[in-house]
Amino acid sequence: MARIIAGVSSSHVPAIGAAIDNHRTEEPYWKRVFSGFEKSKEWMAKTNPDVCIAVYNDHASAFSVEIVPTFALGCAAEFPPADEGWGPRPVPVVKGHPELAAHIAQSVILDEFDLTVVNKMEVDHGLTVPLNLMFGSPKEWPCPVIPLAVNVVLYPPPTGHRCFMLGRAIRKAVESYPEDLRVVVFGTGGMSHQISGPRAGLINSKFDKAFLDNLTKDPQKLVRMPHLEYMREAGAEGIEMVMWLVMRGALDDHVKEFYRFYTVPASNTAVGHIILENAPKPVQRRPVSAKHRPAPKARAKATTRRAAARAKAETIRG
Amino acid sequence: MAREPHDYDDIPGTFVFDQERSREGYGINMFCMSLMKDANRRAFKANEAEYLKKFNLTPAQTEAILKRDYNRMLELGGNIYFTAKLGATDGHSFQHLAAVMTGSSQEDYAKMMLGGGRSVEGARSKSGKVAAAAKSASGKPTAAKPKAKTRSKARSQRG
């Protein structure tokens, strides 16, 4: 069975991508940012997931104002980097996982998340910058990545609660996928920043740190936060942080915080990053929902019954 | 029809790109999107006013674009991710646009960011109603803070 083993959140500031592409990562300004991801890259290499699901937003690259899907799941085999005005970023084409993506779409739509299926899409810095931060700059991305684009550009974005519940539905979908896959979910964007209007440049480290704390320990507090509070406290574009709640919803209630990093600024934005791990679970042969799971005693009985049936079948076959 | 009032209108210096602005600013954003193609950039640069005629803009929107009044573009339905494409067409960095929108020099804006950015204190609310009542992400009212301060002050006075 596939399962979600961990969640990663990270800002996706375009200037971070530009610093990588223009070989400026060793400059003191940028070194301060990149050094915070050294441990994360090691963790990622060690964790070596089979698939990543990356929750991100498009910035007028794949979607203009012509079509604005609230949730768009990338079901294609590959997603080329978008030309954001300076030519496509020199990063590898993102390879998807169409089978798992199709399975997720099938499952979450019946779970009442009416997402948009996208079979052709270019991906911008919103997706590729976090991949760089976690994987470095390899020739090929080490695993397939399923993009999940969330509208956070046109108000209103989905609520934090909706995002969290979509994460839950994605977890259910992943756990009902028959292949043994270890999946990491990315939440991206944020943290506090406003890049529009006379209030541009706003940063609220106090808000960000509390958000990181609650993301680990008390996500329910964040789930009910109204959009107004994000925009007021963390800047008009800080509302991107609702995407982190999709990641959090996809994890267990109790998680271990493996690592976090926070620095101000990268360009106009507070850079925040966190790695949350699910407790390792024994591999289940068959997904059994809690409701239908028999009591321990009955389960023991069932196991005995199954063993007896197997023995009988073998005797007959033999 | 006048804009419907919204709770977020109380946030100072902010034009939330909502459904109403999106409807109103469709032409601005589609114009900006067209600048992703080099041929269009050249056509725009050759005759800006003529090029803009293709996008069903209001006179106010046309004027805001021609004058590069970025705040006015946002107010009239432009979105920053789109209007930034106009800035890029002019050869400006994003920081330049941010400085223009905040009414400061690029140098001052850059300095502010290096110093930790614009503080949210005093920048929460036009009406001033929210300044004290604002809740942090931790859910604790920030109003608890002055109390603690008074206490420590009292303590230091005693000491």
Q: Could you please describe the fold and organization of this structure?
A:
The complex is a heterodimer of chains A (318) and B (159). With 318 residues, chain A is an alpha/beta fold. Chain A folds into two domains: 3-286, LigB-like (Protocatechuate 4,5-dioxygenase, Chain B, 3-Layer(aba) Sandwich); 288-318. Helices cover 38% and strands 19% of the residues of chain A. Chain A has eleven helices and ten strands. Chain A has helices at 14-21, 28-34, 38-47, 98-110, 125-135, 160-175, 205-217, 219-223, 227-234, 242-249, 296-317, and strands at 3-10, 51-56, 71-74, 78-79, 94-95, 116-118, 145-150, 182-188, 255-266, 269-278. Chain A is globular and about 70 Å long. Helix content of chain B is 57%, strand content 0%. Chain B contains eleven helices and no strands. In chain B, α8 (94-102) packs across α9 (106-114).
What can be said about this structure in brief?
By secondary structure, chain A is α/β, with parallel strands linked by helices. Chain A is built from eleven helices and ten strands. The model of chain A has no long low-confidence stretch (mean pLDDT 93).
Annotate the secondary structure layout.
The complex is a heterodimer of chains A (318) and B (159).
Chain A: E1 3-10, H1 14-21, H2 28-34, H3 38-47, E2 51-56, E3 71-74, E4 78-79, E5 94-95, H4 98-110, E6 116-118, H5 125-135, E7 145-150, H6 160-175, E8 182-188, H7 205-217, H8 219-223, H9 227-234, H10 242-249, E9 255-266, E10 269-278, H11 296-317
Chain B: H1 19-24, H2 26-34, H3 38-46, H4 48-52, H5 59-66, H6 70-75, H7 80-89, H8 94-102, H9 106-114, H10 130-133, H11 144-158
